[in-house]
Amino acid sequence: xxxxxxxSSVSKSYNGKTVLKDCSYCFDSGGIYVLMGANGSGKSxxxxxxxxxxxxxxxxxxxxxxxxxxKKDISLRRRxxxxxxxxxxxxxxxxxxxxxxxxxxxxxxxxIKDRVERVLDFVGLIHKRNQNAxxxxxxxMQRLGIARAIVIEPEILFLDEPTASVDKxxxxxxxxxxxxxxxxxxxxxxxxxITTHDMAQAERLADSILIMAEGRITRA
Amino acid sequence: xxxxxxxxxxxxxxxxxxxxxxxxxIFLSFRVSGAALLIATxxxxxxxxxxxxxxxxxxxxxxxxxxxxxxxxxxxxGLFVYIxxxxxxxxxxxxxxxxxxxxxxxxxxxxxxIVVSLCHSAxxxxxxxxxQASMTLGATPFQSTITIIKxxxxxxxxxxxxxxxxxxxxxxxxxxxxxxxxGYTRVMTTTIALETDKGNFELAIALGIILLxxxxxxxxxxxxxxxxxxxxxxxxxIK
Lengths: 220, 239
Description:
By secondary structure, chain A is an alpha/beta fold. In chain A, 34% of the residues lie in helices and 29% in strands.
């Protein structure tokens, strides 16, 4: 069943400063949504709340499948993933970083090896599989973050500023990866929700462009 | 001066000939300190992790208590364990006084706060994004905790090695609770103290050399662990 996401009247404040204010939106399954907005407009907070990393102060975040609301437990969390802006690279090899999500799901080592190598090849990091991941460049780390996320085949993938602080060459590679994943997963109705500052990038990637301003989302 | 020179010469001969008394003392030292370290780590690592990862009542007080106890005077620990295990003490019925077990208990008490404090420090120094990253990849709270502990491994190993160095070099507590009985509770440090008192420098110097070498090895291990951890942190900083 396809997974969709409904956000209803979500509000969030930090230290008295309102970041999200009665924010509502419904993400249907499939396609790329690009969320744009100025610095501090609440894009990252919105993504963290959607990815169930944070609770909203008010409002509801519901995942739906076949019209029914899905319980927010570990099995739902394993159907979605968020690539954080700082990524959170583990101090181990590139291979082990990508294998992490599969190991915690209890997959067999043969299947883990196949899937990790396939994804590393896809993001262009197969030749660095045995290298410590902390020695990668920023762009390679970002690609590793995406590899770590797509290897677990999430139904909804959140990418928070995937090309921020990345050079032009790596930006192009990352955009190509996102578009390739999208074209390869059109039948499985995978959903991408991406934040960016770059309007041109939003136009290159998006099926729907959304604007976040004053703590609310509007369609561009 | 001549007697010191002779002492060194005899000491090297004892080491080279693998003197039976010497090896017995070394073996017992490792057995006692190893067991103490194992117990202290088994108890201290989960407690250090708990203090580092969970919100628990009186957390700040427990952390400062464990930091304070890192500098526990060994003789005070020895006295405390002696009172507990002496015939008239609450655990006197166990008949553990003047046995290697009593020495293990005393050394465990000395190593425990070191393991707790240094494990706690290592765990809180892990970047919070690691926990979030593991959760976004579908880790359960327990899997997430294991991931953080793995990331803190260099700091944790440093803590365990430091605790081992402390208990191996300790003399006051085990002298009080072990009684320094030849062939039974006599370890490297207590032998050095005894033989120096008696003016028998050969065995004392031989054991002193071994203890110094051990200290050198422990420091080398610590240094190597710290270098690996620092180079890991630098790799992130320069990005």
